[in-house]
Design a protein that fits this description.
The chain contains ten helices and eleven strands. The chain has 285 residues and is α/β, with parallel strands linked by helices.
Length: 285
Amino acid sequence: MILLDGKATAATIRAEIKEEVTELAARFGRSPGLAVVLVGDDPASQVYVRNKERACEDCGIVSMPHRLENASQLELEGLIQQLNRDVRVDGILVQLPLPKGLDSQRILDLIDPNKDVDGFHPVNVGKLSLGLPGFKPCTPAGVINLLKRYDLDPACKKAVVIGRSNIVGKPLAMMLSQAGPCANATVTLCHSRTADLKAECQGADFVFAAIGMPGFVTADMVKEGAVVVDVGINRTDEGLVGDCDFEGLKDKVHAMTPVPGGVGPMTIAQLMVNTLEAYKLHVGA
């Protein structure tokens, strides 16, 4: 089995970004800037934000954290509008989920689409659906990047995506089915209401699990030699586990991501890629 090492691949991507950032900062007089907005004290969100700040440091990107213990809808909207106007800020990321009582969609809609490095703004979602250039959500884009780095091309193959979230499942299905490199797959988007999900997976050359259920995909659900990408990350009494039964699958599949150390690091690496692209858009590189 080929272990799709997202941690090592992400480290390579960060090094590539740092080299490019160093050259561009010397030419344009400033480094890229990423504003990360965190509201509340959710422990998991705090960990994610710290990881993103470390990635910025590795890549030479200026991290601009905005940690708010609590904020009203109006205060948060005002901060987003301020960041939209700030020429030092190339990318804006609002860490989700927001505390109860805050309208997260309204906040995401306020972000300048050219600073929407998370790829969640309706403008960028629309561009993705039309196959136009724009910022793509970091997790599915990171998955595609990982496949590219391992020369695992889904073209002319059958792919099954389990999970229809706006953050992972839907955009990943669109990316896989579009014309272009590491795409051109025949895609089935499955979910909790899919009839005979097991049969759908058994016929797939590529299986992408993003359903949020520990160990959901088992060896009897995939065919010999399939490529399995586990997007899930679930906190259990045994620690962090994915949506796939890694031990049960590892002797049957051709390639698979571990959890942790697979898709997670690629998500953050893709955020750095998107921030660099936003910076180049703003400075005219």
